[in-house]
Design a protein that fits this description.
By secondary structure, the chain is mainly beta. It has 2 helices and 14 strands. The N and C termini lie far apart (50 Å).
Amino acid sequence: MGYGQDQDKSEQGMHGVLGEEGKSSSLEVRGDSACYKLKDLNSGASHLMPAKRLKLGCGYIFTLMAVLSVPAGVEAQTGSVTLRAAVSETVALSVLPNFTQGDVTADVVGSGNTVRITLSGTDVKDPVIRVPLLVRSNTGFRISAAVESTTATLSQLSITDIRRTGRLVSPAIVSELNVTRHFDLRGLDENPSTVNPLDLSRPLLVATGPRVSLGGTLDSAGNALQITVLIRLRPQSTGRWLVHLTFVGTAESLIQ
């Protein structure tokens, strides 16, 4: 077997961070007189048990990249070398880096599946903010929202638009995203006829959907779903107002 053929086989075994969840990847290498099998062990220990002398040519040199959800172990076995890896279920939220809202000051802090946005201003006029929320996931997900403020009330939270950011986003996600009915303004007038304060002091479900990302990493271009969230606030009095808005994404399998 030539080196180029071995390299092609090794590249086929590579998976990104957002590779298909729930499946294992395997890679086999055969030696002249012995082989080793890597497998998942409940004990979490890893050890090497040589059977016979193993001779490897340059064709067996390759690089493996995988995210292991459990520790890997090694056992001696005649026949082949097998590496199995499972990708953990992941939901990641973020906001477009160029997010600005005119006279409203927006401070965004993102960490994994959570985005916390602090909005503030001094204008007594009801501000309208559009948040470009990005969702990456290798599994089904749910998004909830919560609002905290003592100086302003939330009069509207609506999803007005969703779109794929590139070819690494599932083609079905736009049609299969389920938005909670009273938050869904896609294709409708963004200015409601009546405005009533919303109580989001406790997290409320905003949307659910299937897997978003077909590959890539947590910061790859073209593998996120962009959801435009419209926020309308009503300052309670003159002077400076402050609002904390939090979005949390949860993997579908983790929801009880």
